[in-house]
């Protein structure tokens, strides 16, 4: 199965992609994580991408499409994948289609995640990450035992610069202007499933699994 988890930042698609990829033995491909790794490693792409990411803007297509294409054509994605954060605009969606067409594959389903703006802002603003081991926390929903200290490795937690309140607003605007339109694109292809994300993680996960399992065996092509 080849899936896309589409939706605004902070809607919870990354968390769900992680859970579903384990449950369904799919590879989780997060374009944001790929870019952050490049930034941390100070690669040429990372150095160019950094400022866009910190300011909440999309990085130019040429910095991300090749990395994602390489990943989905790699052995890691042989059993299928969940794309999280990609595509972010129409031209990326078209590149994705043609990349898959070349190997006679296609996207099977696009899960479109929605939640109210209030829920999204609360989720993003409270997000804290351990710089050392990458563990994720939330100030309100899953706080560490000791404030700002990772439960797992005792390192300090930090807030991503693009999770600062003023940058969240920019990211939501960018989503509306460039990414939301993909809902129509995939709806017209008849492969869109909407997922309401105002509820709890378990409930959302169950909704996704129900959507997945309603796909016929033929569609669940795992080649
Ligand atoms: P995310 O973790 O998906 O919210 O991505 C964090 C940031 O990485 C975004 O705000 C963008 O700056 C950049 N980014 C991630 N994926 C893409 C993409 N497909 N196209 C352009 N920029 C991206």
From TrEMBL:
Its main location: cytoplasm. Residues 126-163 are annotated as: LID. One of its GO terms (molecular function) is AMP kinase activity. ATP binds at residues 10-15, 127, 199. Its EC number is 2.7.4.3. GO terms for biological process: AMP salvage. Residues 30-59 are annotated as: NMP. Pfam families: ADK, ADK_lid. Zn(2+) binds at residues 130, 133, 150, 153. AMP binds at residues 31, 36, 57-59, 85-88, 92, 160, 171. InterPro entries: Adenyl_kin_sub, Adenylat/UMP-CMP_kin, Adenylat_kinase_CS, Adenylate_kinase_lid-dom, P-loop_NTPase. It is found in: Cytoplasm. Residues 127-162 form the Adenylate kinase active site lid domain. CDD domains: ADK. Pathway: Purine metabolism; AMP biosynthesis via salvage pathway; AMP from ADP: step 1/1. Keywords: ATP-binding, Cytoplasm, Kinase, Metal-binding, Nucleotide biosynthesis, Nucleotide-binding, Transferase, Zinc. It is an enzyme of class 2 (transferase). It catalyses: AMP + ATP = 2 ADP. It comes from the Bacteria. Catalyzes the reversible transfer of the terminal phosphate group between ATP and AMP. Plays an important role in cellular energy homeostasis and in adenine nucleotide metabolism. Monomer. Belongs to the adenylate kinase family. Consists of three domains, a large central CORE domain and two small peripheral domains, NMPbind and LID, which undergo movements during catalysis. The LID domain closes over the site of phosphoryl transfer upon ATP binding. Assembling and dissambling the active center during each catalytic cycle provides an effective means to prevent ATP hydrolysis. Some bacteria have evolved a zinc-coordinating structure that stabilizes the LID domain. This is Adenylate kinase. It comes from Candidatus Scalindua japonica. The gene is adk.
């Amino acid at each position: 199965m080849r899936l896309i988890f589409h939706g605004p930042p902070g809607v919870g698609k990354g968390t769900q992609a992680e859970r579903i990829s384990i449950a369904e033995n799919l590879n989780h491909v997060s374009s944001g994580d790929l870019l952050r790794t490049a930034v941390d490693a100070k690669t040429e792409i990372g150095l160019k991408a950094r400022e866009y990411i910190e300011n909440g803007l999309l990085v130019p297509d040429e910095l991300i499409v090749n990395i994602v294409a390489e990943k989905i054509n790699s052995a890691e994605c042989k059993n299928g994948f969940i794309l999280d954060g990609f595509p972010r605009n129409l031209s990326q969606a078209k590149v994705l289609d043609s990349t898959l067409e070349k190997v006679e594959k296609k996207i099977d389903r696009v899960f479109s995640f929605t939640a109210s703006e209030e829920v999204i802002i609360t989720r993003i603003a409270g997000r804290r990450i351990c710089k050392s081991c990458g563990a994720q926390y939330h100030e309100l929903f899953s706080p560490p035992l000791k404030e700002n200290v990772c439960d797992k490795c005792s390192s300090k937690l930090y807030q991503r610069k693009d999770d600062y309140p003023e940058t969240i607003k920019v990211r939501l605007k960018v989503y509306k202007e460039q990414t939301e339109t993909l809902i129509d694109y995939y709806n017209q292809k008849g492969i869109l499933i909407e997922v309401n994300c105002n509820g709890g993680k378990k409930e959302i996960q169950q909704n996704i699994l129900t959507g997945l399992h309603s796909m016929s065996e033929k569609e669940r092509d795992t080649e």
